[in-house]
User: Fold this.
Amino acid sequence: QVQLVESGGGLVQPGGSLRLSCVVSGTSASAYNLGWYRQAPGKKRELAALIATDGGTNYADSVKGRFTISRDSAKNTMYLQMNDLKPEDTAVYYCNALHRFFTAREYWGQGTQVTVSS
Assistant:
């Protein structure tokens, strides 16, 4: 059974930093494109950052230059380093794994809350 477990969320002041982690179990993450999505209250879930199996990355315009996505194949883990956080970054952050070939193999974590407030 494939599971994704996020951690690292919390309350931080504007301008602060957080690092989110997503541990993948039950499969090798190396065959999956991995992404961080976020959903703010009353809004649709949106892609924040994506890292492909070849290490290529893609970011939403709203987080470019502030967020960095990475993956550690040895640990089957994905990270999101978030710097210069803003109140509008407040959301539940979800990790996602989508198989590079078999798109029916898609998995989500349970989400971790990030709150940016003074």
Observations:
- The chain has a mean pLDDT of 97.
- The radius of gyration is 14 Å.
- The longest strand covers residues 91-99.
